[in-house]
Amino acid sequence: MSGVEWIIPILLTVITAATPLVFAGIGELVTEKSGVLNLGVEGMLLVGAVAAFVTATVTGNYFLAVAAGALAGAFLAFLFGVLTLSLMANQVATGLALTLFGVGVSALIGQDFVGIPVDALPKLAVPGLSDIPVLGPVLFGQDALVYLSLFMAALVSWFLYRTKGGLILRAVGDSHNAAHSIGYSVIGIRYLAVMFGGAMSGVGGAYLSLAYTPMWAENMTAGRGWIALALIVFATWKPGLVVVGAYMFGGITILQLHAQAAGLDVPSQILSMLPYLATVVVLVLISKDESRIRKHAPACIGKIFHPAA
Amino acid sequence: MKLKNIASLMGAAVVAGGMLAAGSASAQDKIGFVYVGPIGDHGWTYRHDVARQAVEKAFDGKVKTTFVESVKEGPDSERVIRQMAADGHKLIFTTSFGFMNPTIKVAKQFPDVKFEHATGYKRADNVSTYSARFYEGRYVVGKVAAKMTKSNIIGYVGSFPIPEVVRGINATALGARSVNPNVEIKVAWVNTWYDPGKEGDAAKALIDQGADIIMQHTDSPAPLQVAESRGVYGVGQASDMQHFAPKAQLTAIIDDWNDYYVTRAKAAFDGSWKSQDLWGGFKDGLVALAPYNEAIPADVVAMAEETRKAIMDGSVKPFAGPFNKQDGTEAVAAGAELDDAALLGMDWYVEGIQGKLPK
């Protein structure tokens, strides 16, 4: 085996492990940037996963399946919006409830689909390019959703920092009263941001049930929604760092599994908690450096907006 | 009639009490099941629920069964178990290790209700325990795997390094090396019973490191699915997972509680039920193997069946000596074997397993 070839399978596995985190993380980032904290990511991932899986088994059409995942996630997020934005319920409590609801409702919908396998999402094969050693399979041999996740990350980054719409969204997240007083619809914009976050989580869920492990099983996200939430803090609310963090969190898991399989003496329990540990460390670091929080963290996050009469 | 009239004249509380007593008399034939996971988990809880349905069928609908799924181990389970006992269930199966103390506690308060607790070690006059010797299946499967591997590496996805899991890995190694001493086992611990993504990733890592047989002691079919997509073999866990991996699944080690549950339910109703402890294997019908993959040569199938029968009649014992510990020192001498206490507390690897057992 030549010098670098051993790294290909590791990279390929890291990409599949990171992609659902990228989707959920980028979506939730937009939600949080608008000043809303939605802790229901896990629930939205699950309904996305089950909706995509059911659609894929019934229609056999992957495009429809992914769209169904996005719609299901967006719908759950819409419910969250009704409760927290229109009815002004507490966001933390509602988000937790959304996760519990998502776990239950996805199990209910998926009941008749347990134990049915589907074909995995087809991988891209670019003649010539995909056959380039090392780079070929990694860069040009993925399924469409992997490219979509990175494209969405770039798009969100561009939107937030290079467009007027992004500026408005951030203004709403940083000072809803100011945004309101100059005539922006705070609630409307937040609805859009929350539903975008839900749709992205839904696609992340679709990736889980169609590509990562092509099957439906209850609670199959196994805590990835919470990792996505931690990821945003870890990335200090910057889209680029969300992607880096997702690949790092995915990479740590895969590397430790490879290390174990290679017979190296690695403490797997410690490596399993590393993503969370890293998040705590970042939290400590940013709380020491106030300017960094103020720069990127939305100031109004989690605060309920009461429009002044 | 007269009784009823009197009752109707009495206070509401007494009426309610009378109705409750009448209710429990007519509903003598209710059996309850408390599950730790969802019935759709493909694995542990699913198999218990299959057995529950077997009980309903065996009694031809004359017995009503109820179940509560996804019950958290600990205080909440006590509430669920007590509710069932108070509700007139005559026999209650509590199917997870963590239900042990709540079961014992509720059993004390309901001496007329019979309890069956899976995998525990605390018993009472109305509490039996039962568990299965899955390692017998692992031993047979290890032998099959050793015949089917080309790389001589078996990859094993482990959940937690507890005796139950370590025993399975050791039995696999002993079985495999009894037919092919060059076989090595690589273990990847995922620190969870259930995370399809991570289980699949572990299987991928093991295959990338040369394993061409994947075994697992986790609950989702993901590792087997990875084996199928990578073109290697695997072994199903807890239930037949053949439809997830039609080409890859060599066989599956199946938890089969059906006969046990039916027998115990019948005993509870005819009065012959007694508190007991059963740790049964192939012979007691608690462990079974799924149909063998067609790709397995006939002589290997014959060897596997022979071994299974030999374990049933006691002529083969998976943990009979001589065999060595991982470091090459003698674990059990020729002619000796490990007793149940040693098996229940197993926290060391046998020879042929790579890597250090996490503590």
UniProtKB/TrEMBL annotation, chain A:
Cite the CDD domains for this sequence: TM_PBP1_transp_TpRbsC_like
The protein's topology relative to the membrane is:
Multi-pass membrane protein
Compartments in which it is found: Cell membrane
Instruction: Tell me the Pfam families matching this sequence.
Output: BPD_transp_2
Q: What is its main location?
A: membrane
State the protein's name: ABC transporter permease
Q: Does the keyword Cell membrane apply?
A: yes
Membrane-crossing residue ranges in chain numbering:
6-24, 36-56, 62-85, 92-109, 144-161, 269-286
Keywords per UniProt: Cell membrane, Membrane, Transmembrane, Transmembrane helix
Automatic annotation (TrEMBL), chain B:
InterPro entries, A to Z: ABC-Purine-Binding (IPR052910), PnrA-like (IPR003760)
Which Pfam families does the UniProt entry name for this protein? Bmp (PF02608)
ABC transporter substrate-binding protein PnrA-like domain location = 30-294
* Keyword Repressor (UniProt): no
Keyword terms of this UniProt record:
Signal
Signal peptide span: 1-27
On the tree of life, the source organism's domain of life is Bacteria
- Name the UniProt record assigns to this protein: BMP family ABC transporter substrate-binding protein
Organism source for this protein? Sneathiella chinensis
